């Protein structure tokens, strides 16, 4: 097979079509302190400043060799635009939600009529222009965003969200529907700005937090509704050991499912979702990319490929203090595997 | 005195064989048998605060000491929840609503009693500096309170100075620290060395996505804890006199 462009390779791999070699990308957070120091584009400014956001995101492509450009670096852009208060964090600490607009209840849910103009959304849109000018059409651009479950829990507060899941199923459904609509609108803003793919990270949907039965009955339809309303290649990332919900994730209509190393049996996972979705992952972010060696990274890359992973990627967001050489080893491991 | 150990009951009812049983059915077999107590425990399990208070009131009216109900009924109910959570039959939302119902029940019992309720011991919980992920600490705090400990919750993103000051002031039987982010795990090192420098030998129980047993074992005071459900068991073991070495022997799994 002739050499594919990075965009075609990643697209094909996620759709389960044939490729010359597996692509290497991060569908989750990419920035590291080393890259911030190399580029002068640092957190927390790079969360809000379009040119810094673009510069830092590009570095993981140009310096670390990842075969996509992926930004922003947090899961708070939409939440903030929807009324959450955000602590912007520090150079090595991601932004986090500190205040929730609907923790008292769902009586006054209000969808903003100018979402594209709110908070940091204009900065993310502008960053897309800068990144596209820099990399051209052949390199895929992945926009990351919080998923409907995580957004709903940000809007209501995790504690209320969990409580409603049992005690107030109607309110639970209402906040989820509201969050799903917001996610769809935001994803389409991102798509109109020119990104190629969207990675939805939905950590709160993890079986570590929510009952798989709730996932099946209530969360899965929200994710599937989102997927149907957003017309591009999509990846769903859920943290933790998602084995109990993997089959249901396969029904969510995302092309790719990004999993952590906590999913112990990847071969079995692949069988579970075969024909419905491909797997992205699963080199351990904390134990290997942050605290391991390049050789350990390469070893896990090869294992992932042996197990049937379609896109080599960190299992979860790259920890900011991870050494650049370990991130580079993702591509090196893949190249050795296919040489 | 209620003599029930859900762990034994579960084995007796052979949960592995009957794993298709609904959690409600399992719980029915685990509640205390006294009808009054059972009603309170069941209301805790169901996370129904109003029912908890109503059932408590009934029982207190029948002449039972309100404070005895904290251990015998409210915590018995919460223990059913914790046990089924350990077995993966219940999930975090269930624990949260039951804990809330239990805490409201405890408040009610304290109001109804003139005496002071003695906790089993004082524990400080916190999330290390730089880390804003407090879901693990929330679970641990709920489970410890459910097991009768007074928990001083310092919150998330807690500076080392503040942890050390709180230990000096409160003299807890143990510390429970969590770190979910790999960027923040090294804060345990500072807590460890600052406590040792002050001659304080309190066990620091550490867990969370970012730490490993090997990492925690490097620190003299560190006890690694893989499952949140083990934290109350570690606290119970400390009360039974286990030192850090023995705690590691008992709870380190790798």
Can you give a write-up of this model?
- The complex is a heterodimer of chains A (339) and B (254).
- Chain A has a single domain (6-338), classed as TIM Barrel (Alpha-Beta Barrel), CATH 3.20.20.
- Chain A is built from 14 helices and 9 strands.
- Chain A has helices at residues 6-15, 33-39, 50-62, 77-81, 121-135, 148-156, 158-167, 169-192, 212-229, 246-249, 266-273, 285-290, 294-307, 324-338; strands spanning 69-71, 85-87, 96-99, 141-146, 197-201, 233-237, 256-258, 278-283, 311-314.
- Chain A has a 7-stranded parallel β-sheet with strand order 1-4-5-6-7-8-9, with helices on both faces.
- Chain A starts with 5 loop residues before the first helix and ends with a helix.
- By secondary structure, chain B is of the alpha/beta class.
- Chain B folds into 2 domains: 6-112, Methyltransferase, Methionine Synthase (B12-binding Domains), Chain A, domain 1 (Orthogonal Bundle); 122-251, Rossmann fold.
- A 5-stranded parallel β-sheet of chain B has the order 2-1-3-4-5, sandwiched between helices.
- Chain B is globular, with a radius of gyration of 19 Å.
- Classes of the chains: A alpha/beta (339), B alpha/beta (254).
- Chain A binds chain B through residues 87, 90, 92-93, 96, 158-159, 162-163, 165-167, 207-211, 214, 285-287, 290-291, 319-321, and chain B through 47, 91-94, 96-97, 100, 130, 132, 135, 138, 181-184, 209-210, 212.
Structural category of chain B is alpha/beta
CATH class label of chain A: Alpha Beta
Poorly predicted ranges of chain B (pLDDT <50, ≥5 residues)? 1-17
Task: Please tell me the overall pLDDT of chain B.
Answer: 83
Our count of domains of chain B comes out at 2
The largest sheet of chain B is:
5 strands, parallel
Order of helices and strands of chain B: HHHHHHEHEHEHEHEHH
- What is the 3D form of chain B? globular
End-to-end separation of chain B in angstroms reads: 38 Å
Total strand count of chain B, please?
Answer: 5
Low-confidence stretches of chain A: none
CATH architecture of the largest domain in chain B: 3-Layer(aba) Sandwich
SSE class of chain A:
alpha/beta
Q: Helix content range of the residues of chain B, please? A: 40-55%
**Number of strand elements of chain A:** 9
Radius of gyration of chain B: 19 Å
Give the integer mean of the pLDDT values of chain A.
Answer: 96
Which percent band covers the strand fraction of chain A? 5-15%
SSE pattern of chain A, N- to C-terminal? HHHEHEEHEHHHEHEHEHEHHEH
CATH topology of the largest domain in chain B: Rossmann fold
